[in-house]
Amino acid sequence: MRSWVRHPLRVTVRLIWFGGELLLGVGDYVARCVFRSNASNPSARAEWLRHRSQRTLKVFHVEVSFAGPLPTSGLLVCNHLSYLDIPVIASQAPCVFVAKSEVRGWPVFGWFARLAGTVFVQRTKRTDARRATGEIEAALAAGQLVVLFPEGTSSGGETVLPFKSALLEPAAQAGRAVMAAHIHYELDGEGDASEEVCYWKDMTLLPHMINLLGKRSIRARVRIASGPAGNPDRKELARQLHAEVLRLKTLTVY
Fold it and tell me: Measuring CA to CA, which residue among 91, 19, 111, 110 is closest to residue 51?
């Protein structure tokens, strides 16, 4: 809540703006998705998420830049720093995200995730991982872009946590190309991005969001690998992708 004390007008205006965007998002979802056929609904949801993400980033004053083209289909794996990762990537192309089951219950972002057709997975249950891989395979087969954060949790960005391989199985077995990406945040002299933009440790969502709304601007930099990775062994694929994301991390000039 520090930002509300320091910048009460800025935070209040953006909160009202954000609330308005949520209401508009409901109407937009009804118009785009509710009356679609089962076959076209996943694409409509992904396009709805793209549009809402662009508008959400404006509320938070997030400036996004990409180095390298974002693929339009297949599997994209990325390090995970914040709930902002989703609108940052989704603002550039329609896509389907894979997220831990806890996200389903988050205020605001959990609601967006459910409406957008996110694949939720309870990683501690083998049976649920099998269900999730089936949904991922269906999305890949339909030509959608699926975005996975294989660290399994977010971090402060100092390193890239080891990748969990189970959800890479659909891409590995089908021989699909997988692209790697690295995301990085910066603040304009208003604090440490690892502590104020990244959402990790024992942070609480609503206070964290309100603090972000008080920031003058946030820069999100995403670097995409120059070529795809592929391996029929999902564990080896996970190691290759982890090494590639670490390599992208070292390219700090965006």
Answer: 91
pLDDT digits (tens, 9 = 90+) for 98-146: 998 989 888 888 888 999 999 999 877 777 888 999 999 999 999 999 9
Residue 213 near residue 16 (C-beta atoms within 8 A): no
For range 181-210, the mean pLDDT: 93
Nearest in space to 178 (alpha carbons), one of 209, 199, 150: 150
Question: pLDDT exceeding 70 applies to what percent of the chain?
Answer: 97
What's the rounded Cα separation, in Å, for the pair 228 and 104?
30
pLDDT of residue 7 exceeding 90: no
Q: Where are the domains of the chain?
A: 2-250
Q: Which contiguous run of DSSP H or E holds residue 98? A: strand 96-100
Question: Angle at the Cα of 135 (from 129 to 140), degrees rounded to 5?
Answer: 120
CA distance 50 to 124: 30
3-state secondary structure labels for all residues of 99-147: EEHHHHHCCCHHHHHHHCCCEEECCCCHHHHHHHHHHHHHHHHCCCEEE
Asked if the 2-250 domain carries CATH number 3.40.1130, the reply is yes
CA distance 59 to 124: 35
